[in-house]
Amino acid sequence: MNISLDSLFSFSYMKGYTLNNFSHSTHELIYLINGEGKITLEESDYTYHGNSIFFCHSGDKRDFVCFKKTDYICIRFTGDLKELSIPSGIYDVENEQIFYLFKKVKEEYQEKKYHYFMYCNIKIEEILLLIIRCSHIINPETEYIYKLIRQINSNLSFSQSVGEMAEYSGYSYDHFRHKFKQITGVPPAEYIQNKKIENACMFLKSKKLICSEISELCGFSSPSQFSTLFKNKFGITPKQYLTYISEEKE
To answer: I need a surface site. Which of 64, 138, 154, 219 has the fewest CB within 10 A?
Structure first.
């Protein structure tokens, strides 16, 4: 790949900031630490959120609008990326190692340690490879689904039905369900159910709430539904699970 670091800098865009028809002679890797905004690339609009990566090839023109204050780290570099076949766009990153590597490259670049330039080039290659292996590029067709997944993951009592989600997405019920399963590996109803049970396990382990309170907090329709779904997944009821973890700690 012959990666060669050109420059690195950190910056903040304030709410309302815009950048029009901008391009650069190098490739760019941008770690969007926080905030929200929109990037238009090749006439397609992509919204970003914190903890996502924007990658673009040299010469790519884009427009940028900041909706919420955004802090970022930008790495500019040169190199032949043909063998990677990495498309320009915003990547929803699941591997925290990528963010750690960004910070390490920034640290090396600032401190100028012995052989820092070689070290940075190696780490940039690692970032690119991890982006390809451990992240999902967000495009206009799937952007809404990734947004839904973030909402499900962060909302204890997510309550939208699959039909409502499909309607908001603009897809038919079957097409939405197919797209969701392509991304997550399971249908939307199963994904939501698994997330609710995962959250319930967290509360059960804390031993701070009783089962009926956990059932309501995690969005189950009733304690009996919670108990049935939990047993279907683990083979024991929530109360039996509590007994098990109590005995395990003794």
So the answer is: 154
